[in-house]
Amino acid sequence: MAHAVYNKIVYPSKSTYNILNGTVNNGAFLNKEYPINKKNNQNLPGASPTLGQVLLESKLITQEQLDRILVIQKTGDGRRLGTILIDEGIITAESLALALSIHLNLPFADLSQVTINSELIRIIPENVARRYQLIPVEISNGALVVVMEDPTNISVLGELSALTGMNITPSVGVGMNIQSAIDLYYKANKEIEREVAEFSESSELSDVDVDTSAVLEDPVVRAVDMLLEQAVRDRASDIHIVPDHDSVRVRYRVDGILTEALSLPQGSHYQILSRIKVLAGMNIAERRRPQDGQFSDLIGGEETFFRVATSDTTWGEMATIRILGRTDSIINLDILGMQPEIMESFQRIIQSPFGMMLVAGPTGSGKTTTLYAAINKLDRSRNNILTIEDPVEYNFQGINQIQVNRAADITFASGLRGIMRLDPDKIMIGEIRDTETASSAIQASLTGHLVLSSIHANDSAGTLFRLIHLGIDHFLINSSVLGMVSQRLIRLSCPHCSTMVKPSADISKVFEIEMGEPLKEYKKGEGCSYCHQTGYLGRTGVFELLVMDNNIRKMFSSGASANEIKSAAIEKGMVSMLKDGLTKVKQGLTTPIEVLRTVYSVD
After folding, report:
1. pLDDT tens digits for 439-452?
2. Among 482, 459, 480, which residue's Cα sits nearest to residue 567?
3. Are residues 218 and 179 in the same domain?
4. Alpha carbon distances (Å) from 71 to 56, 61, 88, 96
């Protein structure tokens, strides 16, 4: 069976041992392109060494380690040599995959550098790809090139050949990279459209006729399930389902930017909306008044939470679905993106026995994530921690969480009054929106409790004046507020397609004014399949933390403006959001254009 030849394939040879050994130091082989003999395989060794020999010669393991692992393998639970080595932390999955390619005399594929044609993906069904952890990448010399985590599984190769009617050329890949590629390329859009066609064309249901039984039919259920699953795979934070004059637009918000995902027939609108309402426990007969609801579902084997809001529009009822990630993905302060000096001050404040810490920013700036990470840092074994939220987005063990329920007359203010009778030590308020809540929060912080909350303000200094606007006296603010964090979310440069580029003259000028040094180059994504051609993949926070010291309190009491207070804080060492963002540019995390787009208007 001929070996396929395509971009970013590494063919095993004696020199590959050196490449493999290099991965121990820097992992560079995954991003390097090596020369390939396209006419024949003269570089392939005549007799393949054992996997143990490859690992020994590449100096990834010692003979002592190999002997110990072989004993474990013989007396253990049937795990393979490579699996045990990874489980023991001796080698990485990447190192094992390349070593396996040498052992089996098969090419190694770096999927992070391969773009796969969408037509090719349809050759192997998604359920087969996921079951066996494999993905097709190319047709070469009449054979289908398939990247596999375990290319030694002969029965799978036979099944693939029978399924596709083609010869199969296996190559070796890293398991987690194969999984990421499957999530990336197996889009559910076509399947959603097929399911929708079944009920939108055959059904004459109107907004009056739709009932619960109609939206429990298989095509409707499958279409909504696939829509939710695809949004989670695409890392969307929100799904927008909006009726238009002749269609239903489905859009995903990914990394803060709305993108078009699907355009569905108008006839599918009411069934889809009603199915979502059933899931969220909402009234499917009510279509004129706004409604809120929430539900959870298993996506990729993990429970995912969804928050739903609906409202009537000119062309009918629209819905937005907020996708709430797993708790364990957001509770660590270290992943927020705070610089060490900001993190140190922030942690010192949230360990205070009493007072108020406020997190400011617009909707969607990550305030709730920061608050959750903060309360998760607190010692819940020695403190009674209570929250009042609208809604409760994540459940924490050992923290007592209360949800706003206006139908039961539970608001932020009334909920906070109730919390004060429950002997709290630390209190989190989802948001300070009105005078009553602000006043209750201040009183709680002045009576021996630490209060954490979010508030809408442009920057940290502006938070003080937002409290004034809500009717809180200067003296009470000075007596209670310990510090204010202001934050935004910026997109990260895609690690798969980023290259170093030189900045324009205007960008260089802004950077030098703020940072005191020129910007020679920065990392910018060119656009690839991983980032959907945007050049960005993922987000992080940019922060500024204003600590209320005696000087700031005096300035605030004497009538200084927000700009004057901010300037004084910067002179004493406060890092502005703009400077924090540009520091991340210098660190190669993002682009100056992204920072300026997000935070320049407030600095």
Report:
1. 999 999 999 999 99
2. 459
3. no
4. 17, 15, 13, 19
